[in-house]
Amino acid sequence: MARLNYMDVFWFVPNLIGYSRVALTGVAAYSMYNEHPTLMFLSYALSELLDAADGHYARKLNQCSKFGEVLDMVTDRCTTTVLLTYLAQIYPSFALIFCFLISLDISSHYMQMYSQLITGKTNHKQMDKDAHWILKAYYTDRKVLFAFCFGNEAFFLLIYLNHYLQGFSFYLSALFTVAAFPICVIKNGINVIQLYESAKDLAKLDAASLNNQAANKK
Known about the structure:
The protein has 218 residues and is mainly α. The protein is 82% helix and 0% strand. The protein contains 8 helices and no strands. Helix 3 packs antiparallel against helix 7 (142-162) and helix 4 packs antiparallel against helix 5. The mean pLDDT is 92.
């Protein structure tokens, strides 16, 4: 096999899928602010479906990369933030809730990634035997992970769509929205656990480091 350079990593198939997700997020954002709900719905939904494809092809083609992992996580966070920011505008009564969810999503994933990498893990999804059982169940089964992530995004996307629908279409969409709501609640509950567990791991490292410093001064 030929020796790779950094430019080859940029052209890995899963990373190309990641770039397409970024482009689709751009299309979705443009469609939101220019009130093209159909185009927005299709581009956003396709971006979320491709979220499963990049990981699949990374493993299948042996093209897993640190760049790809970060690209995937940053794209996920940005895509959700774009949608929740717009939802805060069209549903101002719930703006504080959407702002809280944005903050929780970003902070929990950043702290999770940082704590995992600083403790020698290869990525933020790697769980050891001491990890919280809910996080292990969430991150170690790809089907569970995809189901909760997709269901969470589907709930937000349906809320957006409901703003533009009328009649039977609205009631049908509202039915799916109600069905997706528990998934959204559980997913954000997992984010809370993830934030706490990551903060606890970092605090344990700090305590151990400070104790070692104190012991060395004696």
